[in-house]
Amino acid sequence: MIDDPADHDALEESEALELSRRKALPPDDIVRASIVQAKQAAAPYVTMARIALAQLGRSRLARLGGLMLSCLALVAIFADLLASDLPVACRWHGTLYVLPNVTRPAALAGVDSSRMAEERQPGDWMLRPLVARGPDQTSGAAEVLVPPLSVGHPLGTDAEGRDVLARVAHGARTALGLGFAASMVLVAIGVVLGALAGFAGGTVDAVVARAVEALTAVPTLVLVLVVGALVPHPTTSTLLWTIALTRWAELARMVRAEVLRNLGADYVTAARALGASASRVLRRHVLPNAIGPAIVAAAFGVASVVLVEAAVDFLRVGTTGATASWGESLGEARAHPDAWWLIAFPGAALLVTLAALNLVGEAARDALDPKLRNASGELTEAMRS
Predict the structure, then answer these.
(1) Most buried in the list 5, 38, 87, 351, measured by CB within 10 Å?
(2) pLDDT (tens digit, 9 = 90+) per residue, 274-294?
(3) Contact 75/62 with Cβ under 8 angstroms?
(4) CATH of 65-75+165-384, one of 1.10.760.10, 1.10.3720.10, 1.20.120.530, 1.20.1730.10
């Protein structure tokens, strides 16, 4: 507060000079100067997200896990370019098709690369993927249990003549797609119910606590097997919702504990003293500081869902044959122990996926927990000294 009129006039004069100086600058310089000033004003308010991202960027394990996940995601996204029964691009019977293995045009229904090669007309051509076989496309008895590095089958075939490379590539799409989808659903349910239980208390807390106790008393795999046995025709969506509706309990318990811990903090007391509503206190002050376990649980949740999906398909009680699955490929090796490639390649893909997700989860936990972050920094300094 300025009491001296002379000082007040001097401040107004300096602001007027600064404003006139800005008007004299080009528009681009004005925008650039405003951005710089905004960054300087916001510099002290470094958020937890920026600190966590910076910590993740410095972690070698996080970079390694992120690189592995990126490679697996690329395989899942471009699985149709690696293995498909239709070409990547072709000209067939005078019509040009681009990415028909993705778009699946009606004109090519019931046609595959082998038939297109047999019925090719003058001027027709096609660009085949690495393996001209779909994940569910079978072949004759001559191509059953073909070993790796065979012509047309780099990773061999299974007991039904299906290409293992196609099964592994499309299985990555199944595993990661189901894992991330189920993880997002269970994180949303766990965060909402855990926050409401910790913040509201009373009857809501009691109901959520009893639901958590009931779900955690039975292993997830057992519940998935029971639902798979009760549903006449289980699908991927059935498995997704079963896992999501049974795995949220552990996350809800962690979020509830974090909410209760943050409710006793001084900044929450100050917000309530200033007249902040209950919803604002929960949304702006409590939940952002309790969301860390949810982010970590999301990474570990994906790994857990991938493992459960592989176990269910391995036991052949899930959506066997409907979609490509690493667990189903591993299950086929039980009847053919000599076909080592049925274990090696799907097992390696599953192992790499679980290792990458656990590396990212461990790094995220260390980055989001200040105590672990400080402890790791002290350990690093001690090792250097």
Answers:
(1) 87
(2) 888 887 787 777 877 777 777
(3) no
(4) 1.10.3720.10
